[in-house]
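Notes from hallway chat w/ T.B., transcribed later so I don't forget. T.B. wanted the structure written out for a chain they're using in a teaching module, and asked if we could keep both sequence and structure tokens in one place. Agreed to drop them here.
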Amino acid sequence: MAEREQYQNLLNDENRRVRELRHQLNEARAQALRTDQMMTDALRDERNAQREYWEIAENRKDRISELLREKFAFCLLIQRKETQIAEHRRNAYRLTMRYNNDIETVYCRY
């Protein structure tokens, strides 16, 4: 009888260990699933952030291109205005010279 109780105690101990190991295995599986979900979420967040930064970079490239086109147009306008200013100055100088010559001629007659 004592031997039977001893075997029963051993069997009970082994059954308890099996339950503990199953519990530990279930906990490990749950932890692995949580870790997998966390990594999946992190990867999704990283991809979303990368997409946002790519869009920001594309928008900035578009804005830079637009500003460069505007700068080119303004440079052309400035060049055209400077040419017009130089032409007006030459005309003003010619008119001033003609005026001075005409005045000189009028004063020299009298």
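Follow-up for T.B.: Residues 2-109 form the longest helix (108 residues). Might be a good example for the class.
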